[in-house]
Structures are given as structure tokens and as C-alpha cells.
Amino acid sequence: MDHLLSIFNGISRPFSINKTKNLKNCDGREAVEAMAKDAKKNELLLITSGTVNVDRSQNSASVFSKRGQKGLNQDCCIVWEEFGCQEDMMFCGIFDGHGPWGHFVAKRVRESMPSSLLRNWQETLIEASLDPDFDLESDRNAHKFNIWKHSYLKTYAAIDHELEQHRKIDSFNSGTTASTIVRQGELIFIANVGDSRAVLATMSETGNLEPVQLTLDFKPNLPQEAERIIQCKGRVFCLQDEPGVHRLWLPDEESPGLAMSRAFGDYCVKNFGLVSVPEVTQRHITSEDQFVVLATDGVWDVISNEEAVEIVSSTAERAKSAKCLVKFAVNSWKTKRKEIAMDDISAIVLFFHSSSSSFCDQVYPSLSLSSPN
Questions:
Q1: Strands, E, within the chain: which ranges?
Q2: Which one of 77, 105, 179, 331 counts the least CB within 10 Å of its CB?
């Protein structure tokens, strides 16, 4: 642990005199929790609708969430700029709870995820550096990805286990998605469980802004997901009044009817094909990559990837981009799915470059999307 603290102090800028003095007297968990508290105090950590825009950073993020028509808002988000006191790092996460305890599950995962991930990243980095065969300079990007992937897998497994043991949250028939992004310099690392989605907006060779979907929507009918579920004796089928909506069911009961194949919680089907193992990927950010939209299925059920990119890029003020996207989704629910109760709708828009390098007017000079009410 002394190795961990020395690296912790070495790579972290001083985040307050009191906190820095106390680092030597606390373990990794306490150090990370102190960083999170300090980040929130300095408005670097956001868990409600709003914006994060630090002057010295190229990052800026817009966040907005709206409750649907099904009761409590079970969506929640987090943005942490200068993640772990690293000026070149940012963490974004979006979580979509479901079931009677879904709002508690989503908030608990949001609370645990960034600190647990940061702690595991530090420990994994130390373990790798102690390996005599480890050479970060030989293939820096590959090593970074392997370290983040290992950290993500360890974090997601630990959180799901802790959630199962939680005394005050009943996750047997409730759960949450978790889609997260870490930006580290010019790399982003994406981890996804469930059917929330990350979509990148990038400039094509023809000068048009195009969407690139960075995550899979983990639905039970995906071939690799269905195969695992069937091997575990679970079942996948659609109800007669929901054609095209594939759900995961227990072997002998029409329950729980989960519309995803990966999630935190939902222990009633964890032995029948549901997993909480994330898909972890990376992307090198170039000057053509402009922003990424991270949103719950309340957006993607009614808005295409292309439409989302158009809406964000045509919003005059970056700070209002997530709110604008959510409002367009609300209007789309009213016209496209008016017979269905509107889902909770949440979005994070993470911009990669400073606002001075604006591209909207060049890409969509004549775009005429009607303003949402």
C-alpha cells in the first residue's frame, strides 16, 4: 500500500493542504473518497443537470435528465472533471435503473463506480509497473487500454457483488444499466452494460458530421447474448402485444421479462444468463472527433444516432445541448410512441475541443430543426 500512496501522491496534483497531508495516513479508498469530496466542492463533479467547463481543460460537458411518466426518475448521471486530480482525465457515467428499487440501484452504482474504478486503476497501474517485463513506452496506448480494461472488469464485478450483499437495497428484481467513459488525454475508454448508448460525432472526409456508435445495445436477442442465456437455461422471447421487444425470462416462469442481457442487480436471473460484465473499448480522439453523446434508451427509443448528432451540433450554446436533445426526445415520444408511457430521458454531451473551434455553422448552416417546447 505504501507503493500505492507514493504513486498516488506523485501523479496527483495537490488538491488541498489538509487533504494532501492526510493522504499519507489513509488507505486508497479514503484517498479516493477525499478526492471526490474535493472535486464536488470545487464544482468539478456534477451529479445533476448542468454543465462542467473548466478553463484550463479542452473538455466541456452538458448534462440533463427528465422524469418520464412511470413514477420516480430512475435515471442518474455523473461527470467528474480532473478525474482523480489528473488534469487530462474526465469520467462520465449514465445509469438507467429499472424495477421497484431501480432508482436506489442506479444511484448506488453511480456513487460507487468512479471511486472504485479510480482505486482499481491506481492499483492495476502499480501492479503493471512492478512487472519486470512491463514497458509503458513500447506501446503506450495498448498498455493504457489493458490497464483500464482490467480496472473496469474488476470494478464492475466488485460493484455487482457488493450490491447483492447490500442490506438496504433489494436488487433481486431490480437493476441498472451503466455506460461510462474515461477520457485520458487523447484516448477515451468506454465500458458498457445494458442498453444505454454512446454515439460519437466525427467529421467525415466529405466534411459532414457523422455518427459512430461506440457501444452495443445489449438486448437478449443478440446472437452471442441469446446463446449464453439459452446455455444457462434462461429464455428469450417477445410477448404477443410487444412484437420485436425481446426479453429475458426465467426457465419456468413468465418473469422478470428483462429487456436487456447485461445489468447490475437483477439477481433473480443472474444464474440464467444475465451478466454484469462490461464491453470495454477505446478510441483515439482526433481533430475530426467533435463530441460524444451518452444517453439512456429514453433517447434512443425515439431518436436515431444521426438525429442526435444533428440536434446537438445545431444547438447554439453547448451548455444547453443535452437539454435540447432531451426536449426533442420528449416531443418525439409524444408523436412516435404516444400510446406508451414516456420513459425517463437523460443525456450527457461531452465535447472534446474548445468552443473556439466551432464546427456547427460549417456543418449545418441551413439546418432547420423546429425548436422544442
A1: 45-46, 50-53, 60-66, 75-81, 89-98, 175-176, 178-184, 187-193, 197-203, 209-213, 235-237, 247-249, 256-258, 264-265, 279-284, 289-295, 345-351
A2: 331
